[in-house]
Amino acid sequence: MLQFVLLALLGAFVQADITGTNPPNGACLCFDGDSVNIRDSACGDVIGSANSGQCYIYTGAKQTCDLSGVTYDFFRFDWGSTDGWSAGTYLNTAAASACEAGSGAFTDECLACICEIESNCDPNIGCRWDVNSDSCGPYQIKEDYYIDCGSPGSDWVSCANDMACAEQCVRAYMDRYGTYCTGGATPTCEDYARIHNGGPQGCTCTCTEDYWDKVSACCGGQTGCD
After folding, report:
1. What is the CATH classification number for the domain harbouring 134?
2. pLDDT 10s digits, 17-40
3. Which H or E element spans position 143?
4. What disulfide bonds does the UniProt entry report for this chain (predicted)?
5. What are the φ/ψ torsions at residue 148 (nearest 5 degrees)?
6. Which domain holds residue 70?
7. Are 48 and 172 in contact (CB under 8 A)?
8. pLDDT score, position 175
9. CA–CA dist 123, 191 (Å, integer)
10. 33-47, 80-94, 96-110: which has the minimum mean pLDDT?
11. CA torsion angle 142 145 151 155 (round to 10)
12. 74 and 119 share a domain?
């Protein structure tokens, strides 16, 4: 039994710490470590974070640079609607199936309907008082949500009110809590919508069922939004 488990692990994670390697374009890269910084370029600004087991598709770019006096190999990957970079020290190469499972179902269509339900996707809505605290921007992001998504941009209110930054935050939040909420199962749009509304365990709370009904009505059965 132990031998089987070890073989399974070796099959899923091909190589740990990919510093000094050259993965093929399209390889599956998975994080090994929690709250690992994701940057907008090699040694660039932090735009989010990732946790162990989150996997992304490598997009073929690698760059060596110095950060705080330490030399790192940085690798670029597809991170939602933008590119992300992270040091190879915190990355594994993995079987393609890890990225297929990790991609879940958080599609542009699902994201768009969450935006529609929150604010009619109004980029000028600003901040509104909602359940004991302000919610800001087209996705009505609260400060705690912003912190959990990795605090992209310059600050909570500015990011929440900027469509691109807000979308980046929402995607990072779903990357962080999607499978956490589902217990490892691949999340659906319903899971993501309920997490957005109810927090890390929102997909298990009956309090988010009405919210999903609204998002589902917006989806209207379209592909990628069910």
Report:
1. 1.10.530.10
2. 899 999 999 998 988 887 788 899
3. helix 143-148
4. 110-189, 115-121, 127-136, 149-169, 159-165
5. -70, -25
6. 27-98
7. yes
8. 83
9. 24
10. 96-110
11. 10
12. no
In whole angstroms, give the CA distance from residue 176 to residue 170: 10
**Residue in the structure block whose two tokens are 């209207």:** 220
Which residue, 98, 100, 106, 91, is CA-closest to 169? 106
Helix axes 108-119, 209-219, angle to 10 degrees: 120
Residue 108: per-residue pLDDT: 86
Q: Sorting pLDDT into bands at 50, 70 and 90, what band is 10?
A: very low
For 183-207, what is each residue's pLDDT tens digit?
A: 767 788 999 999 999 999 999 999 9
pLDDT tens-digit readout, 110-143: 999 999 999 999 999 999 998 889 999 999 999 9
pTM above 0.70, yes or no: no
Q: Which two tokens stand for residue 136?
A: 């800001």
Structure tokens at 90: 């915190």
User: Which residues fall within 8 angstroms of residue 68, CB to CB, at 6 or more apart?
Assistant: none
Mind telling me the catalytic residues?
A: 118, 130
Which pair of tokens denotes residue 89? 């020290």
Query: Do 29 and 58 meet the contact criterion of CB atoms below 8 Å apart?
Result: yes
Crossing angle of the two packed helices 209-219 and 189-198, in degrees rounded to 10: 130
